[in-house]
Amino acid sequence: MSDLLEFLKILLPAIVILVVVYIMMREFTKQNTKQLDLLRDDQELQKIKLKNKSKSDNAKISIPLKFQAYERMALFLERINPTNLITRVYISKMRVSTLHTSLLSTIRDEYEHNMSQQLYISDESWELVKNAKEDVVRLINSTASGHKSDDDASGFAQEIISNGFNSKDNPIDKALLRLKEDLRENFS
Predict the structure, then answer these.
(1) 119 Ramachandran zone, left/alpha/beta (phi>0; psi -120 to 50)
(2) To 10 degrees, the CA torsion angle through 137, 143, 146, 147?
(3) Where do the domains of the chain lie?
(4) Which residues are CB-contacts of 122 (< 8 A; sequence separation ≥ 6)?
């Protein structure tokens, strides 16, 4: 029995120390877990702040570019409007072949100059802009087919204007309307 008492004298303090150490370790682990959770939450908050700042910085750059693209597309459409186009390109005593070539060249140059703007406008708007350009080219080509190439271009020019687009099916007006709708939808 005395051996048992001696054993208990050694074992009992060891058990008490073990329980105390276990309780302390458990509390220490809880505190560390809370700190890790707080650090993780803070890190996530910092990531969100950086992402929002990045979006804000991108918006400061991209919104003016988008507005500029819509403005340039509207200007392009106005410039290829047959009346405006002929007013800019036609010179008195021009021949049909020269005016025809000049009109198509001007449209092509304007289009190529503004092609990159498709990155900033809606696909539907871009499609309508392309269709308007093609319709103007078709109008010019079909009108030219009714004239001799060495004729005076004044009749050719007048016919393009008079045969132009009626207000109901005007592809330029449709494209301009779509550009305006896009602006209202995306920036109002």
Answers:
(1) alpha
(2) -90
(3) 63-187
(4) 178, 182
Contact (CB, 8 A) for 46 and 40:
no
81-122, pLDDT tens digit by residue?
A: 999 999 999 999 999 999 999 999 999 999 999 999 999 999
Using CB atoms within 10 Å of the CB of residue 105, give its burial: 0 to 12 exposed, 13 to 18 middle, 19+ buried.
exposed
What is the per-residue pLDDT across 7-28, written as a single tens digit (0 to 9) for each? 778 888 888 889 988 899 999 8
Neighbours of 100 (CB within 10 A): 21
Contact 129, 76 (CB under 8 A): yes
Closest CA to 81 of 48, 107, 62, 105: 107
Q: Residue 92 in 3-state DSSP?
A: coil
